[in-house]
Amino acid sequence: MPSPTTAPHPNQPVQPLAWHSFQFLIPKLWEVTAYSTSEREGRLEFNTRSGVEAQLSWQKCKREPNIEETMNKFHRELLHKNSPEEFKTFKQLSYHDYGAFKVGFDTMARPCQAALYQEEEKQLLRWIFPRYDPEKLQTLWVPLWESYQPNNGDFKHWAVFGLDVMIPKTFQLETIAALPANVMLIFEGGKRMRLSFHRWGIPDLLLGGRTLAEFYEDFLVGGGAKIEEVQRQKFRGMEGVVIDYNERAEYAMDKLYGRWQGQGTIWYNREELRIYAFEQVGSRKAKRLELNDVIQFT
Questions:
Q1: How many structural domains is the chain composed of?
Q2: Same domain for 137 and 179?
Q3: What's this model's pTM, rounded to 2 decimal places?
């Protein structure tokens, strides 16, 4: 499944966002400040230096909901809690369709909502923006809604926190660590394979005088790896290192009698001043992925 390609407003640079079942192009300045890993139900929150910009939630449904009724119910509950006088006179939101999304809004002092039911996933997607803003609607939100694509191919797109990868749908997101200058995503593929992605900032401090190979060896050994071979190898024209290693297996009979085989690749993007790495480790019989098929960025 390709990434979203709808052109944004020309003055608004964007970045990809791809999660369990959906893909968007979101404003470049938006940062994910809260997230849920559950595929069934959860949310992502986005902030800038100005404060909260949006919330995107997803929820499995037994049947297709009445989206207008769902939006109205949310809005009525909000007014009942925060503005009883307005609650008494409120009837319904104003609605408009943008792309595949139904958009509901009231006044500029109240939230704007946009919702879409994903039939194949039986899942409701809903964007909520703190205040309806006609200018933001045209320059930010409409391009965002129109960039939507489902994320349900044999390979799923994952893009968040500066990482952008494509991996088989059989892998499940297990772990996220989103720390300043240190991002990690880990995916598990049954009981035979684990994929790990890293993005580090402040490279001079991270390396601490070590070469890229020395740093990566220390990192892998610190996680329990036994190094087998180290090769200096460029990745897309950037300084890189490939390390073959093994580590103690994690599951069933493998854990008792065998070791998992791993390969890690690290590269230094000097233009971004970021260091990236990708490891795949598992049973010797497990099929390995091609790095260039997996990595969508740099």
A1: 2
A2: no
A3: 0.89
Structure token pair of residue 68: 């207008």
CATH number for 221 = 3.40.1000.10
Whether residues 189 and 264 share a domain: the answer is: yes
Last residue of a domain, one of 122, 150, 178: 150
CATH of the domain at 91: 3.40.1000
Residue 24's closest CA among 44, 52, 10, 49?
A: 44
Q: Which two tokens stand for residue 113?
A: 């909502």
Please list the rounded mean pLDDT of every run of 10 residues in the chain (298 residues). Answer: 42 91 96 94 96 97 95 90 82 92 91 96 97 94 97 95 96 94 94 92 97 98 96 97 91 60 97 97 90 91
CA 224 → CA 210, 221, 246, distances in Å? 20, 5, 9
Walk across the sheet containing 22-27 and list its strands: 149-150, 22-27, 14-18, 155-160, 163-168
